[in-house]
Write a structure and sequence with these properties.
3 domains, about 55% helix
Amino acid sequence: MGILRKFKYKLPRVVLNQCYLSYVRPLMEYGGALFANEDDKDLKLLDNIQMEALHIVSGAKKKTSHDLLKKEVNWPDLSLRRTFQQVTFLHKVIHNKYPTYLYKSLPPMRDHSNRTERKYKFNTPLFDHAFYRDSIIPSSISKWNELPNHIRTIQKLDTFKLMLKREYVEPPKPLYHYGDRYSQMSHTRIRVKFSNLNFHLFNYNLVPSPNCPNCNLPETPNHYFFICNKFTAERIKMLHEIERILRSNNINNKITLDLVLHGTEKLSHTLNIKLLEAVHSFIRTTGRNP
């Protein structure tokens, strides 16, 4: 984490993202299936590390909404990934990837002769103490039984893992990784609603007024991108380039704030990058959102 903090403003988002996923998160997940049901207080410590990494990678400010930040970066919660580890462990046990004594320790499967949705479900183990309930096998069985039938019945491990991700994890947003670090961070902060625009700062009680110092109107993202008279020349250049990209691909979309912040599914990834280039150029030349 120290390296991520040191290079927060120097490395592009895609590099910081990969550094966390490759070098930091695996350390926190080692043996995750075993401690998935530890005290919330202890697991919260790991969640706090991931939350700090979310701030570093995205470039968002402290106190940014956690929900918006998670949506921005699209990392699955550590608790969900620990659940994946538990059901993957049980999949390996069922399909003889581990010693047979582990399979013999499992309770019998439920009778599913008349209910296909019960296939590969186990009877719930009986327990007298919460300590046993939260141990790896009973806990994994509980999570396993909650899986949809079309995932439980998958035989191949790689396909099983892939379907877990498709079912429960939103795909990443590679478009957000594009651009120089300054533009990435500025764009992100507008998306997560905590930038240097007065409207956002006012919502966090950091300035006395939400109004633009030039127009005396609320300095919202819409005002910044489409209205403020201080940035007319920069805006004309940005809108002209976006209109050219849309027209050349026979897209009649109106240029909206959503388009400026997120791109559009009607364009390819390459053309969305060109659209973002125009937006980032506007952000850099106006210098309003460092």
